[in-house]
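Researcher: Batch entry, complex prediction.
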Amino acid sequence: MNEQHIFLRPTVLAVIAALMPVPSIAAGDIDALKETVESLQKQLEQVQKQLKEQEEAAASKQDVQQLQQEVAEASEWRDPNTLIHMAGYADAGYVDAEGEDGSFTVGRFAPIFHFQYRDLVMLESELEITQNDTETDVALEYLTLDYFYNDYVTVLAGKFLSPVGQFRQNLHPSWINKLPSAPPGFGHDGAAPVSELGIQLRGGFPLGSIRTNYALYVGNGPELKAEAEGAAGETEFEYELDGIDAEAFSSDGDGEKVFGGRIGIIPVAGLEIGLSGATGKATITELEAVSIDAGFLGGTAEDAEAGISNEPDRDYDVYGADFALQWRNLDTRGEYVKSKVGNESSSAVAEGAEWESWYLQAAYRLRPTKWEGVVRYTEFDSPHDSADQDQWAVGVNYLFSNNFIGKLSYEFNDGQNGSTADDDRFFGQMAYGF
Amino acid sequence: MQSTHKAILKSLATAGSLSLIIALLPKTALAADYPAPGDFARGSKAWAENCGRCHNIRGADDLRDDQWITTVFHMRVRAGLTGQEMRDILTFLQSSNNRPISASIVRTSAGSVADSGLSGQAIYNQTCIACHGADGRGTLPGVPDFTDERGRLTKPDAELLRNMANGFQSPGSPMAMPAKGGNPALSEGDLGNVLKYLREAFGT
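Model: Structure tokens for the complex:
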């Protein structure tokens, strides 16, 4: 039955087709139709090709999920509550001082660690790693816990750089300092305090169109050093003040705190004027040097030490002023500081002393080149003639980048004849801030 | 014994005074997230005015966004910035640390953003003025002087628009101009309006 149907179906179709009227089609119409079909076929092929390409290019659901995961992981890295960051600076160079052989120096490596918890608190700490001959010295430059109390106050606790003046707290890093050396009196053992251990409030606030910044602190304060001389024929040592050890002490020998700070005013962009000071008490705690002439009748070095074992505290005051002016390619700045230790009649060293220093510096960048010229003049006065110094320093810098600087400088030093303060010096230095 | 009592009393007085000072200071609420977003335009101005007070200005693309957070908080303490100034500067730096895009990779990155509807002058005053200055001469050393007869504006529109859209490093400038001046909301039309304003206001 089924086979018959299969056989009859083409026959019936052939009969029907034969009985249908045949339309008359011109040859031109057939050609046009043919072209249309070919055109449609080409378009279809193009669409199929594009579809295939899109399918290949389109991200699958799995791809999207993987991408979402990667974005989430990136966010984890970017947005944790605790951030850890290391900054700092390093330098290496060459120094050739009059009367000495020139030497390459490793300079210093000063990493600064930042550990921050949200916008609440940050631990900041800078180490200073230096090499002295074959020995490596590590010092804690500063370590503070910075509590961001509000928009205008940050509370710092710990060891901090002295906010008296600008050089110590902001300009001394070698990638910032435009000359390889510190101005005389602004380094260690100079006229300017170096660091302090205590509590500090820092911040800024606007006064109308004028901007201000401030730093106020209370700390353990410095200690004083004395020197003793036993002259021939004398029966008692003669003492005098040797210096102020104005670095942070982790204990307060005399129980007297020092209060100080700085206020900076920025009346117009590019100009900052600062006034700073500190006041408190300080005590002689160390005998830096003892010289005993032959024929001295008073005793030994131990006796000299014993002579300052019960020193009273005495007045300690610091005054400072600074300015900075940037105008186009010119950068000028200057600073004055005076540290004063008062007289004390009950002390083995009755007479007080003063250390004073100031400098003016100008730097000019030859744009669009990367060269920069620098000149600085400094005068440093102390109770010791051998340390007093007038200095002209001239330098040429090449800024490989804004934080990688090559420096060449020459210091014309004028001090007591025969002292190191009188020796001119040549410096070469590479400094990198990171 | 008396001196011991005196020392204790002095210590207590010092600690008490400090606590009192801190307690009396007005406390602002911490940001909902940290740090709260700042203002881009104010940030670029604060960045231009503050960083060079002590050191050479670092380019925005020197650090990643998260590195800028700790760095700017550190600079807040060092430079005596207010919290708002710090947030503004951070917003500016984080928006500007995308490097200039190579023209061979992207011809213009501005096309898909809708126009802001602002005039060229208004956009300039918001986004460009901190570095280029109200007078077009540049507020920072190394930033081009638009009023220079043989300066940047002698270049054809197509080149200038490409640099504006993709960012550009001027020789001697402390940082590269970020793409669209660091403001991703600007459209191609906005950039055209800014260029038109530059030519009208500073061109010769």
